[in-house]
Design a protein that fits this description.
With about 280 residues, this protein is α+β, with helices and mostly antiparallel strands. The protein has two domains: about 160 residues, Ribosomal Protein S5, domain 2; about 110 residues, Alpha-Beta Plaits (2-Layer Sandwich), CATH 3.30.70. It is about 35% helix and about 30% strand. The chain is built from ten helices and eleven strands. Strands 1, 2, 3, 4, 5, 6 and 8 form a seven-stranded mixed β-sheet that branches. α1 packs parallel to α2 and α1 packs antiparallel against α3. The longest helix is centred in the middle third of the chain and has 17 residues. It is globular, with a radius of gyration of 19 Å.
Length: about 280
């Protein structure tokens, strides 16, 4: 086998809350992750020279050791005790600074692709340890689907698959720095916390879209004040969205719709004013 290609799905946070902070400064969260049908595509292949090389379809993405994909490949090779000798080609479709997990899903995809390419299957616990050191969202992307996460994101509970066939995700030109977003959350006074546990319970009970939508929410919306986020949410709700919620620490927004026509019309309207807008659905991996 000379090369392995994997799709790396984006995620949304159906619910996201910050519930505390560890002594080492890491924030404690409760969230419901959900993969969606927006994908990066990543190909890992052998190369003749020792070392790692990386190319990317987006010009402003660094193709060096600062990239999380590169770090993931190095971490895998250390754990597998093999010499790095791989080229990674990354085709990006997930926008950056969107709260959609673009870097994290690419890192997880590299770990899984290298297992397949090299034939070295690491124990799952070891793979998870590598993933959590790379980033709080990376462990989730080793599984995908619908999951509740606590702690710093490493304590995962797989939930029944959430079927949301009519989603719209949009993002403006503005991005959000994750460290800045967490600082803004820390500064909130008496914030209103989203009902993440009720959402989790509803998903376990097999609730439908009409029951799930009102339970979706994100604490970061109270902290991250971006005009484009407000404009997208208002447009989605005016177009009939059952809910419209920022994902992650921002700045992408998803809307849940009850029908295909409503979703497509909302997406078309958003494409006229925003650089990124897409109709999609929940994915199981």
């Amino acid at each position: 086998m000379n090369a392995v290609t994997r799709k790396a799905p984006a995620k949304i946070n159906l619910g996201l809350d910050i519930v505390g902070r560890r002594a080492d400064g890491y924030h404690l969260l409760e969230t419901v992750f959900q993969t969606v049908s927006v994908y990066d595509c990543l190909t890992v292949s052998h190369r003749t020279q020792a070392g790692i090389s990386l190319t990317c379809s987006v010009k402003n993405v660094p193709c060096d050791a600062t990239n999380l994909v590169w770090k993931a490949a190095e971490a895998f090779c250390r754990a597998a005790e093999i010499t790095p000798q791989f080229h990674i080609d990354l085709e990006k479709h997930i926008p950056s600074q969107a709260g959609m997990g673009g870097g994290s899903t690419d890192a997880a995809a590299v770990l899984l692709a290298l297992q397949e390419l090299t034939g070295v299957t690491l124990p799952q616990e070891q793979l998870l340890q590598i993933a959590v050191k790379l980033g709080a969202d990376v462990p989730f992307f080793l599984y995908g689907g619908t999951a509740y996460a606590a702690g710093i994101g490493e304590a995962l509970e797989q939930l029944p698959a959430c079927a949301l066939p009519y989603l719209v995700i949009a993002k403006g030109n503005e991005g959000v720095s994750t460290p800045a977003a967490y600082r803004a959350v820390d500064a909130l006074v008496c914030p209103k916390h989203p009902p993440v546990q009720k959402l989790r319970e509803a998903l376990i009970a097999g609730a439908g879209v009409q029951e799930i939508a009102p339970l979706c929410g994100n604490l970061f919306e109270s902290a991250v004040a971006l005009p484009e986020v407000t404009a997208i949410r208002q447009q989605m709700l005016a177009s009939g969205a059952l809910c419209s919620v920022m994902t992650g620490s921002g700045a992408a927004v998803f809307g849940i719709f009850d029908g295909q026509e409503q979703a497509e019309l909302a997406c078309a309207a958003l494409r006229n004013v925003m650089p990124f807008a897409v109709c999609c659905h929940t994915a199981t991996e």
